[in-house]
């Protein structure tokens, strides 16, 4: 680590997009802290390119506050991305959208790192009798690349307490957001900050739209002036498709039997209406029962049932977040 001073460092645009942007009040607080206490944390770099400390670097240079620089080594650019994602995911106050994006970017980068290690024959998962089957290192569609993706998804799923399928889904989410960033850079921070509410499927659909259309949408929602805009609201009156002209009425067909329309909310609505009775029963038992007179076996059974209920509730909440 260098002594405190000033140094010209490089800023990589891709690395910087992985850093959560500070809110206005957070930036002001950081600036006040640096003015009062100096820069206590070093700027972290790889080959003199910042991997952590972009805001501190900007403020310190602007206000002439000396700072230290700590250089760390990575074997590749993807390993640097993995480090940045790990570092950012350990921070508090990141939105669910940012969390999914960072896990997705980490998954894609680690998958590639693992694949390269396999093709070099250094990976612990590579058996000597499998070496003849290793793919061409430039082929990203072969068996070893898919296997590296599967192992990476399993490992990250355990680390971040989501399913391996969710990790792979986040990978597609991050790819879609990167594609949107190429077409309308101002739109992605709105999504990652949670200001612009849009589902996973609509993010993917948006990434496949023409650049001109994405830019029009980005212009329409502005730069955060209106909090919490939903995708469905922003798409109103947006389509340039001509209105459908009324055509001739189709011949009326006698109705034999009208089936009820499928309601995708039905299961969730039924569960939502049932839960208040559970909570009421739990509260009534807690208030009225004299637990000091209840047998140990009965209390054990209740505790076990409540533990199972708690586990299912957490699984349901995770599923909701993964599909939001």
Please give a structural write-up.
This protein has 324 residues and is mainly α. It is built from 13 helices and five strands. The protein has helices spanning 13-17, 24-37, 54-63, 77-89, 96-119, 143-160, 164-183, 187-192, 200-207, 211-221, 231-234, 266-288, 296-323, and strands at residues 43-46, 49-52, 69-71, 196-197, 229-230. It has a three-stranded mixed sheet with strand order 2-1-3. Strands 4-5 form a two-stranded parallel ribbon. Strand 1 and strand 2 (49-52) form a beta hairpin. The protein is globular.
Looking at this protein, list some descriptive labels.
5% strand, mainly alpha, three-stranded mixed beta sheet, 13 helices, two-stranded parallel ribbon, 5 strands, 324 residues
Q: Pairing-aware structural class of the strands and helices?
A: mainly alpha
Which overall shape is indicated by the principal axes computed on the Cα atoms? globular
Q: What is the helix tally?
A: 13
- Oligomer class: single chain
The string of secondary-structure elements, in order, is HHEEHEHHHHHEHHEHHH
State the major sheet. 3 strands, mixed
Intertermini distance = 43 Å
Please report the total strand number as a whole number. 5
> Proportion of β residues?
under 5%
Q: Which radius of gyration do the C-alpha atoms yield?
A: 26 Å
Uncertain segments of ≥5 residues (pLDDT<50)? 122-135, 237-245, 253-258
> Averaged pLDDT, please?
80
The proportion of residues forming helix, as a percent range, comes to 55-70%
Widest sheet, order of strands: 2-1-3
Break the fold down into its secondary structure elements and pairings.
Layout: H1 13-17, H2 24-37, E1 43-46, E2 49-52, H3 54-63, E3 69-71, H4 77-89, H5 96-119, H6 143-160, H7 164-183, H8 187-192, E4 196-197, H9 200-207, H10 211-221, E5 229-230, H11 231-234, H12 266-288, H13 296-323
Parallel strand pairs: 1-3, 4-5
Antiparallel strand pairs: 1-2
Helix pairs in contact: 2-3, 4-5, 5-6, 5-7, 6-7, 7-9
